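User: Need the bound-state model for guanosine-5'-monophosphate:
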Amino acid sequence: MDESSLISHEAYGPDIAGVLIPRHRIASRLDELAGRITETYPEGELTILAALTGSLIFLSDLIRRLPLRLRVDVVRVSSYPHQATASRESRVLIAPAGDLPGRHVLIIDDILDTGKTLELIRGLVLAAGAASARTCVLMSKRRDDLPARVAADFVGFDIEDQFVVGYGLDYGDLYRNLPDICLLRELAGGNGR
Ligand code: 5GP
Ligand code: MG
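Assistant: Bound-state model below.
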């Protein structure tokens, strides 16, 4: 039996249509990603800059797999005012607090959609004088309508253009605590755009 069929989404409430990526697949993919990231920084030092709030759980699970001299900083960018599910213009709400000049910076986000969030953060990291600025997302959404979209350097999962919640990702500030990546019932099969 496929292990994922053992995880029932029933307990997550009536709004959750199903599990897209179960926790054990996330965990094994994080092992692979962490290995690749560690190899990419032979100097052994890294500053992780996490985009709040959706990347919180990804961040905490990933950094415990990285045997590096690691610093963690956060940045908050608004791209989802209220409950809209389509990406809007991004704005910096909380700027990184630590010193980025000369640092190797890996920007972490939950999901790559239009790419505006990562572009904005990468721009500010480079403007601050970082030695390097790479990007890592847990998921990258398929957006055939945006052929010029930026790519992330490290991607956990390529997914279809669907709205996902859980494992840090919210809808109207809910569902961040779900241990699996799930689809919302009302948006399943659509992207809310
Ligand atoms: P982008 O700037 O690439 O269009 O959007 C990235 C941000 O939009 C992510 O950090 C995330 O906050 C939000 N986002 C994009 N797609 C989804 C999704 O399917 N589910 C959730 N919960 N947030 C999303
Ligand atoms: Mg986000």
